[in-house]
Specification:
Shape: elongated
Radius of gyration: 30 Å
Largest sheet: 4 strands, antiparallel
Number of helices: 9
Oligomer: single chain
Order of helices and strands: HHEHEHEHEHHHH
Strand order of the largest sheet: 2-3-1-4
Length: about 290
């Protein structure tokens, strides 16, 4: 396409937006509302997915060592556990460290046990894939000089199942919302094009090609998507900034974190803009197609 022809189409698309003021306003309003809903819900679901991942990554097992084990046995056990397939990290904690942690948590009353420490040395083990925790726990418990392995048996499977369901539900809801947004916006754009069907018929009758007719409407769809995404981008940015500033200090010492304001806000805003443009193009393309058969 020649640059002059493209420039003409750009000018024509902008003129048509101004000429059909109320229909443009209706289309932009539909784009704005639906993209705002999609943007807010997507940001929420991505943060829920981040929280689910954090919970999964925090799954670990406590491997308790037999009381009579010496330092050589402890070093040998660490090497054996580390060599197992699927082990991400192994951290040793002596019974003295465990007692200190107990005193810090429950107060000086626990200091009475310093004379006769009943606790065991232990390893804190993490699996590369949290879903392999149960398998690893079984393998570790079979190693000599291991007294016990604790990892939340029975509850960990329920946790993973719940997280998987929440992810699937979130994905379905986002897909459903996007489909609804495309349906609403394309119908609004279709109403705009129906009102101008005479214009399309005249262009076809004087010999204009299908693409010559389509391009101004597609450009209008792009403009509608861009204009309609401005307000959602601004609202989502302000909302997420305030939520982030409120939540971050309160989650500072928690293993669950929300997504950093940057670069996440740029990613979600780019997604909103892209959805607006794609839906605008799709709605215009599909709506003008039926009027090209003259």
């Amino acid at each position: 396409m020649k640059a002059r022809t493209l420039s003409r189409h750009l000018r024509e698309s902008l003129k048509n937006l101004a000429r059909n003021g109320w229909m443009t306003f209706a289309s932009v309003s539909a784009v704005t509302v639906t993209l705002l809903l999609v943007g807010v819900f997507t940001a929420l679901m991505l943060n829920m997915n981040k929280a689910a991942t954090d919970i999964e990554q925090d799954v670990e097992m406590n491997v308790y060592i037999e009381l009579e084990s010496g330092q050589e046995e402890i070093d040998s056990l660490e090497d054996q556990i580390t060599s197992l397939s699927g082990v991400e990290s192994v951290a040793y904690s002596s019974k003295e460290q465990e007692l200190t942690s107990l005193i810090d948590s429950f107060g000086e009353d626990m200091a009475l046990f310093e004379q006769n420490n009943p606790l065991r040395d232990k390893f804190v083990v993490k699996a590369t894939d949290p879903r392999q925790t149960e398998r690893l726990a079984t393998e570790i418990s079979d190693i000599e000089n291991i007294a016990d392995v604790e990892y939340g048996e029975g509850k960990i499977d329920q946790l993973f199942e719940t997280l998987e369901i929440s992810r699937n539900v979130g994905a379905v809801l986002i897909f459903g919302l996007l489909f609804t947004a495309m349906f609403l916006i394309s119908n609004t754009i279709k109403i705009t094009i129906v009102a101008r069907r005479r214009e399309i018929e005249i262009m076809k009758l004087v010999g204009a090609s299908n693409w010559f007719v389509r391009i101004p409407f597609i450009l209008e769809g792009i403009w509608l998507g861009i204009i309609g995404s401005i307000l959602p981008i601004g609202i989502v940015t302000v909302l997420y900034y305030n939520v982030y500033e409120f939540m971050q200090p309160r989650l500072q010492n928690s293993f669950i974190q929300i997504l950093e304001f940057t670069p996440f806000i740029y990613q979600i805003n780019a997604l909103i803009l892209l959805m607006g443009v794609v839906i605008g193009i799709w709605g215009s393309f599909m709506s003008v197609r039926k009027f090209l058969r003259v």
